[in-house]
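Note to self: user wants both folds in one dump. Writing first protein now.
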Amino acid sequence: MSDVNLHLTLNQYRTLLSLLRSVSRVFVLDSEFETSGYPSVPTSAPVSSLDTEYSSINLEPELRVASSVHGVWTTMDLVVSVDTIQLHLYGAGVHVDANVQQHGIARFALVKNTLRYKSMSDRASEAQLILKSFTMCNTEPGNTRFREIIPAAHHNRNQFMVLYSMAGGPNGVSLAVVTIDSPQIIFSISPVLALLDFFTTKAHFDTLAVGEGNYDVKSSSTQNGRGLDFRLDLHDVAICVLENDQDPNTQAIKLNIQQLLVSHQVSFHTIFSTFFLNHHSGNHSIKS
């Protein structure tokens, strides 16, 4: 697939969330089937000698099957590649194409995207998302001199990678590994507030609210017996907060993080390799 160009207004975003909520009501929970007189369908196969070998499947984090496990095969191996994905966000005042540029918020661009999904016959699965480059631009009307909030990466490595692995078995654990390489972020307060207003609108929370049901996410995950371990790895992060984005000689606060590693397994622990804060005056370290 070559290029994908998407445009989304605030009203369309609210409509999309409402549609997702309506679609989710089509699916009925197993408990509702049981209480309504329908026969329950077993969610897992009978216990066999194969169930005792689920521990032989490890997450390193890549999904691998030990040689001692017999009768396990790949059921799906899917790869999707897209050269460029662009998403344009617009505020609530957009009603016709003529005034769309006057209500711009931000433009996101994902370059050289690859998504791979692999599943095994024992219900183990793995998903991998790789983005070569991730950029974000401020499209608000005005005289800002700093349009690039997240400029393009200046290296040949992958800038954003996500790997999710889930072991097979009824009590299999999951592992998510997120790696972000050399993100550079330059922003002022105005576009950040506009994005927060876009994604945290009241209609958004009303749509995500459970409302009629008594579904408890915590209790459901406990009943399923699955746990999620994750690891977040940041390299060479630079965050620059501008005082006035319309002034090319504005003062700025720049935060540099050489490496930040956050992991959650049995217990939560955070490792800071190098962390220092610099304050810069003028534009000698900022490119407009």
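First done. Writing the second protein, which came from a different request thread.
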Amino acid sequence: MIAYLVVGLIMLMFTLDVIVSLLNYNYRNKPIPENVKDIYDKEQYQKWLNYTMDQMRFGLIKKVFDTLLMVGLLVFGFFGTLEGWTNGWFASPTLRTLSFLGVILVGLSLINIPFSYYSTFVIEEKYGFNKTKKKTFFFDFVKNLILMTVLVGAVIALFSFLYLQFSDSIWLFVLFAWIALSMIIVLMFILNVKVFVKLFNKLSPLPEGELRTRIEAMAKEVGFEVKAISSMDASKRSTKLNAFFSGLGKTREVVLFDTLIEKLSDDEILSVLAHELGHAMHKDAPRMILERIIIFGLYAAIIGFIMQSLTLATAFGLSGIHLGFGLILFTILIEPIDFILGIPLNYLSRKAEYAADAFSTKYVDKKHMMSALRILVTENYANLNPHPIYILLHYSHPAIPDRLGALEKL
């Protein structure tokens, strides 16, 4: 019975995802809000419609494949078979868990290559977004796989150690797992630009000049010290635009995509960075980290529940409670929880975006923020008319008509 419930949960979440995606796709035929009607001309609008259709169709195919794959692995007892293999490879429980999950993660990464390749070299290429060379694509895959193996392996080894130490007191395991996850998320945030971004991209100091001087002056006026201002070679992979601040506290690093520098004026770039400084002033990053820590506490409790249920393991062919399989089940069971939690969390995120936009207008005229958003929409082919339900469930940023409308009112 419990196996049917888990499979039923997977199919329920799949069905909800498809319904919401189709609602959003069909909503494209609704009249475009007046304040964004002039963003795309007729040819650009048709191109956006085609891009949206291709992305939706591809996403649906991948979703169907991923769902059927997971259901197949569960129903046909693959995880029980894999447990038998890995138990024969190693005597150490930690190595058994690492090898069990290693086979799954590497296997899923390899299976995902054709999908990623098609997305990059067919869809993104078709609409002029892709700048990635095939050599870069496969080199990125290898680096991602190595990085994932090291990081995930280290986290799983830590979890295995904690589980072996506290298997008789499962809630102590839950407590220490929560503490470990909380420390990891803070560390990952701190190391993002210092390590992970630099593994895949080249950061070059922004040359001395008016733009750099104005960025430093604006940051100083707000009360921040800019440690470094860098241009990132995003154009070797995509034409899409972005910029971000990194770090905590009053010392920050600025990273500008080279595509952003190319497409936006100095005033527009400053408005984007003033928006990011707004997030810093409002302490949005610490708030988001705190949110994740609280949610990780819930996640740890779910893992604790799974690791006490012999029935959950034996229902899918395993000989007993297994940490590796418990983590697989965890990814399934948290999906409806993430679905529900996403509603208030996305709302808070959208609210923070409005506040950051308003903050930016204190330092740069709002017309530059509005023109920057229009360029970002045009270059990234953003949806001008998403379905309200899709916004509610998936949008961490306000829809462009709403965001421009809020700026117009300031």
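Dump finished. Worth passing along: The mean pLDDT is 86.
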